[in-house]
Amino acid sequence: MKKYLIATALLLAFQANARAQSPDTFLDGISMVGGHGSFWMSGSRFDGSGVAMIGGTAAVVLDRSLIIGGYGIGMSGSPMSSYALYDPGRWGFGHGGFVLGYTAMAGKLLHPAFELKLGWGKAKLETDHWDPILEDRVFVLTPSLGLELNLAKFMKLGVGAEFRQVTGLETAAFSNMDLSGPGVYFSLKFGGGF
């Protein structure tokens, strides 16, 4: 029995010493880890037409301010093409990827928030019968700046402005700028630790 007590004491001492000598890590200074899921809706112009983009994000929130996660967003409806050759063509557009963000003063009732979405997707032009006319893969960069209102400990309402920059579109009829442009957004975030 004495051997077991000595072995247990040595094991506990070794474990305490090992914890005291653990290496420094990136997350050592992080005092709180949380997460959120959000509904995201933005309105902007796309090939000269007003469109609504609907999607969402899922992210880890570090120290109530740093956001790291993913997103997916797609066009609601199918606006008509402005190019006569493809009349009556309709657009389809969606993208997804990574989201990085920073929320300043998250504990305040109203506070600023910045997000950057980096993603890949597809822009396509189709006939009224959904037959493809044009289709191209694109890279999308969307910075946004807005205000968030803490509605409850688990819910935030956000509004703000964004700019969608599309690159990689390689067609004779349309340029990247036809699909890029400013917009406004509305978001609802649900989660904890943010």
Helix/strand order, N-terminal first = HEEEEEEEHE
- Reading off the top of the CATH hierarchy, the class is best stated as Mainly Beta
Flag low-confidence runs.
none
How would you sum up the major sheet?
Answer: 8 strands, antiparallel, barrel
Per DSSP, the total helix count is 2
Roughly what is the average pLDDT, rounded to an integer? 83
> In whole angstroms, how far apart are the ends?
50 Å
For the CA atoms, what is the radius of gyration?
24 Å
Which secondary-structure class do the elements indicate? mainly beta
Describe the fold and architecture.
By secondary structure, the chain is mostly beta strands. It has one domain (32-192): Porin (Beta Barrel), CATH 2.40.160.20. The protein is built from 2 helices and 8 strands, in the order H-E-E-E-E-E-E-E-H-E. It has helices at residues 2-20, 176-179; strands at residues 33-46, 49-62, 66-76, 90-103, 110-126, 132-152, 155-167, 181-192. It has an 8-stranded antiparallel beta barrel with strand order 1-2-3-4-5-6-7-8. The longest helix is centred in the N-terminal third of the chain and has 19 residues, at 2-20. The termini are far apart. The model has no long low-confidence stretch (mean pLDDT 83).
